Amino acid sequence: MRRTKGKQILTELMCKKIKREGFWAVSGVRYPEEYEYFKGKFGENFKLLNVECEAKKRYERIIKRGTKGEGEMTFEEFMEIENKETEKVINETIKLAEFSVTNNRTIEELHESLDKVVGEIGINTP
Q1: DSSP track, 80-104
Q2: Do 73 and 62 meet the contact criterion of CB atoms below 8 Å apart?
Q3: Is there a contact between 8 and 34 (Cβ–Cβ < 8 Å)?
Q4: In terms of Cα–Cα distance, which of 89, 85, 93, 90 is closest to 36?
Q5: pTM surpassing 0.90?
Q6: What does 2-44 look like in DSSP terms, one character per residue?
Q7: CA 89 to CA 123: how far, in whole Å?
Q8: How far apart are CA 97 and CA 92, in angstroms?
Q9: What is the rounded distance in angstroms from the CA atom of residue 126 to the CA atom of residue 123?
C-alpha cells in the first residue's frame, strides 16, 4: 500500500477512526510523512513521543516473549533486521519527536517517565 499510495496511507486510514475529542496513543509512527500527516490533521494537539530502548534489551525481551517465531532468533539475526533500510528511516522520524523517554529498565520506571511526559503535555490523568 505504501508503495502505491504513499508512506502516509496507513496514517490516513487510521485518522478516519480517530475522533477529535479525547486522547489517543498511536504506536509505530515510522516515516516522517506519517508524522507530517498527523501534524497537519491535529496541529499542536499531536505530540510525537520517542520511546527508546537499547538493541540488546529489545532482543532479550523478544526472546523472552517468543511470539511470531522470534524466540529462536539469534542476536545477529535480530541486528540484521534492525539494520534493514526500512528500519533506518525511523531514525529520521525520531528527530521529529517532541518528547523522548528510555525503556531500558523496569515497567514501573517506564510508567514514571511517561507520567512526566503526560504532565508536561498538560494531560490530566486520574
Answers
A1: HHHTSHHHHHHHHHHTT-SEEEE-S
A2: yes
A3: yes
A4: 93
A5: no
A6: HHHH-TTHHHHHHHTT--SSS--------SHHHHHHHHHHHGG
A7: 30
A8: 10
A9: 10
Task: Write out the residue range of the structural domain in which residue 9 sits.
Answer: 2-121
C-beta separation of 37 from 11 below 8 A? yes
Model confidence pLDDT, tens digit, residues 50-65:
999 999 999 999 999 9
Q: What is the pLDDT of residues 86-121, one digit of tens each?
A: 788 899 999 999 999 999 999 999 999 999 999 998
Residue with cell 539469534: 74
Grid cell locating 56: 540488546
The residues, ordered by sequence, that sit 6+ positions from 107 with a Cβ below 8 Å of its Cβ are none
In this structure, is residue 50 part of a structural domain? yes
